[in-house]
Amino acid sequence: MSDDKREVVVTDIRMPFMSMVVFMVKWVIASIPAFLILGFIASIFMTVIGGMGGRMH
């Protein structure tokens, strides 16, 4: 195998509008589980940080 590197510059992408809309809808649907996971991790983090603070009387 050779280690030749080739640079590519994309100047234009031709895509029908409806195909782009379908692609973006799929992209949004695919991102929902990622946001749920991030929200779950954030809630655990906030619970731990809040629990470490204790309560002052």
Q: Could you write a compact summary of the structure shown?
A:
Keywords: Membrane, Transmembrane, Transmembrane helix. The chain crosses the membrane at residues 20-49. The protein is an all-alpha fold and 57 residues long.
Structural description of this entry:
By secondary structure, this protein is mainly α. The chain has 1 helix and no strands. It has one helix at residues 17-53. The longest helix has 37 residues, at 17-53. The radius of gyration is 23 Å and the shape is elongated. The N and C termini lie far apart (71 Å). The model has no long low-confidence stretch (mean pLDDT 88). The chain crosses the membrane at residues 20-49. Keywords: Membrane, Transmembrane, Transmembrane helix.
Task: Outline the secondary-structure elements.
Elements: H1 17-53
Keywords: Membrane, Transmembrane, Transmembrane helix
Transmembrane segments: 20-49
Task: Write a concise keyword list for the protein shown above.
mainly alpha; 1 helix; 57 residues
